[in-house]
């Protein structure tokens, strides 16, 4: 067999290298304690921020480019419009100049018809040398010219006469209509004057009646006011007399109590009360002394009851203190027993630990034992 140098496929090697690099980066990311605990890939976040900023910058540049392109298009359109206006103006100027130079009215073949033989082409050749083609007016043309002119004059006169009669008739009708309108206006003015006169008379009569009513009403009000003043004076005098002769001013003691009958006590009229009598004051003093004695008796009874209650509380406090002492003694004994039991357990645990350390587990693992773990990210 012949030895042939075949080229190695570089894509496979590149793929392998790419996977190895990705695996190495993944190991570094996974086995990094800070990243694993924090839960954030700062590099990835920074890369995302960088890509986002690049995208924003590209969009901004694209927008600016589009803005510049729009401005350029607008300027181009404005320039094109200005150029077209200039071209149209130049074409119009050239066309006008061409008309004025090469298409004048004076140079046309029918100049005599358009301008009434004024400015027509003058023939400088003598008439004896001109032929039949140079003739413009021939004998026998327009034979009825005079008759036609007379007929036209007659028709014109008839039309003028009819127009004059029509105008005269219209003028008479307008004059008659104006006269009727004036008569109607005069009649309306007369009717308006009569109506205004009647309205003035009615208003005058109404004012007179209103004045009479107001005078009568004023007189009635004045009479009522005088009567009201007299009534108020009578009421004031009566009130003054009643006040001067009332029990309040005379200080009548019998008027304070009003007998109700049926064995009920008399009712005191507050508005007439002037004070208590000596009998009433003595009755109040006796009632007050009675209340004081009753209050003193209640105070003594309350004092005795309070002393008994305090004695009972003191007795209960002593009993509670003795109970607390007994409970403390029991807890102390229980704690001593618990301590003894814990010491026993500690000695047993220590003996167990010494057995494990000195007799059972005598071979300690080396670093190589721990290095065999977590060697791959899978």
UniProtKB/TrEMBL annotation:
Keywords: Cell projection, Cilium, Coiled coil, Cytoplasm, Cytoskeleton, Flagellum. Belongs to the RIB43A family. It holds the Pfam family RIB43A. Microtubule inner protein component of sperm flagellar doublet microtubules. Residues 149-174 are annotated as: Disordered. It comes from Xyrichtys novacula. This is RIB43A-like with coiled-coils protein 1. It is found in: Cytoplasm, Cytoskeleton, Flagellum axoneme. Transmembrane segments: none annotated.
């Amino acid at each position: 067999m012949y030895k042939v140098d075949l080229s190695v496929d570089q894509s496979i090697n590149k793929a392998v290298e790419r996977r190895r690099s990705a695996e190495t980066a993944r190991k570094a990311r996974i086995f990094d304690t800070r990243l694993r605990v924090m839960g954030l890939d700062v590099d990835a976040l920074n890369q995302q921020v960088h890509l986002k900023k690049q995208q924003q910058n590209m969009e901004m540049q694209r927008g600016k480019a589009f803005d510049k392109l729009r401005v350029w298009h607008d300027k181009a359109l404005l320039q094109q419009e200005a150029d077209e206006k200039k071209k149209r103006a130049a074409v119009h100027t050239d066309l006008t100049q061409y008309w004025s130079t090469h298409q004048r009215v004076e140079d046309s073949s029918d100049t005599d018809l358009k301008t009434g033989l004024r400015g027509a082409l003058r023939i400088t050749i003598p008439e004896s040398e001109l032929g039949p083609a140079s003739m413009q007016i021939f004998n026998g043309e327009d034979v009825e010219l005079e008759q036609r002119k007379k007929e036209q004059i007659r028709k014109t006169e008839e039309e003028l006469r009819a127009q004059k009669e029509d105008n005269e008739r219209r003028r008479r009708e307008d004059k008659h209509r104006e006269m009727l309108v004036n008569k109607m206006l005069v009649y309306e003015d007369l009717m308006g004057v009569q109506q205004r006169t009647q309205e003035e008379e009615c208003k005058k009569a109404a004012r007179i009646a209103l004045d009479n009513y107001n005078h009568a009403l004023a007189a009635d009000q004045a009479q009522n006011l005088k009567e009201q003043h007299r009534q108020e004076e009578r009421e004031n005098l009566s009130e003054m007399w009643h006040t001067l002769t009332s029990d309040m001013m005379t200080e009548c003691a019998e008027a304070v109590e009003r007998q109700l009958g049926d064995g009920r006590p008399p009712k005191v009229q507050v508005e007439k009360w002037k004070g208590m009598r000596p009998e009433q004051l003595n009755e109040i003093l006796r009632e007050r002394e009675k209340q004081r004695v009753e209050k003193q008796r209640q105070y003594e009874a309350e004092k005795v009851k309070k002393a008994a209650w305090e004695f009972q509380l003191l007795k209960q406090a002593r009993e509670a203190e003795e109970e607390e002492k007994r409970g403390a003694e029991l807890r102390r004994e229980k704690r001593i027993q618990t301590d003894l039991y814990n010491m026993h357990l500690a000695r047993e645990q220590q003996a167990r630990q010494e057995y494990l350390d000195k007799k059972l587990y005598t071979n300690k693992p080396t670093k190589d034992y721990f290095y065999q773990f977590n060697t791959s990210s899978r």
